[in-house]
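Blinded run. Sample ID left blank on purpose so nobody reads anything into the name before looking at the predicted structure. Input follows.
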Amino acid sequence: MESWKRKLRMGMVGGGQGAFIGAVHRMAAVLDQQVELVAGCFSRDPENTRTTGRQLYLDPARCYESFEKMAKAEAALPKDQRIDFVSVVTPNVSHFPVAKTFLEAGFHVVSDKPMTFTLDQAAELVKLVEKTRLVFALTHNYTGYPVIRHARHLFQSGQMGQVRKVIVEYLQDWLMAPLEKDGQKQASWRLDPAQAGAGGALGDIGIHGMNLLEYVTGDRIGSLSCDKSTFLPDRALDEDVNILLRMTGGGKGYLTASQIATGEENNLRLRVYASKGAILWEQENPNYLSLYQYGKPRQTLTRAHGEYLSEAATKSTRIPTGHPEAYLEAFANIYCGAVEAIRRHIDGSPMKTDEYNFPTVYDGLRGMQFIHAAARSAENSSAWVDM
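Blinded prediction complete.
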């Protein structure tokens, strides 16, 4: 069908007025001029959807009152008009029903994390994606940074050796005050177990740390021991988690995630110590990767240096060195990978899942396994739980 001759048509569920991540998805999706937003159900409030649609210059007829009506109506449109895929940016509790509805209607899906609300839903979604053979992408956006992709190459190629110790930190302070009591939308739903699920900081940012660790090293968490805490009164979900890790390859370490760490902004940091060397990466300074290979001088690798970075890294950058690329560009790299896979599917030559250059439904299942294992451990006096 020669999809390369046109932009892909995107629909969106969620991301209306007062939302944060929806606008990020919209900017990331269109950054490389391969996608256009043409339809949406941006809120459970129809007026919010209409207002958002007007601000995005969308056809009012394609701003829907519910995601069910949207999926049905879009599927009924001619193939040259309907959406090619949907972006799901709702609170966690809605991820599964929205993704399921659109997959069953024949549409590809890009979803925010965590993939589902429950572990059973994650397993069901895996089966549905395998059955439909449609593209499902999960926006663990930190895997889109060029030097992170180079770090993955270092471990995949054997240059770093066996993982021995890992330290993952994701520290914020935005929930230091009871914002939810002042009606702050993000705080309200993220601290509500009925909307966020089993984890607060655990499910919001801890899952990113877990995904980044396994993405870079290729080593999986075998078992964990979790302690989680809530400090502010009247909150039902964790604000702070500390997790001991045992890796399947024999390494050990810890993962800490907090949203009440005074003075921190968005401090995601990964350190991996292996038998041949070590790496350090910090999300707040994301264009640099600290590399140490045993017996050699310490190095600082910078983005866009094709002479020493892997192909995976150089393909993920857009501008020369010295011009910082960061959060939105990394997010856009996830969309670029999804767009390539969707185009291939439309044109009748679908990619194999192991060829995807983005987190998949299997990564989503892995994330839900992590959340639920950590929650079980914390509920049982930090007992060791297998992943």
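Unblinding after everyone has recorded impressions. The CA atoms of residues 213 and 270 lie 7 Å apart.
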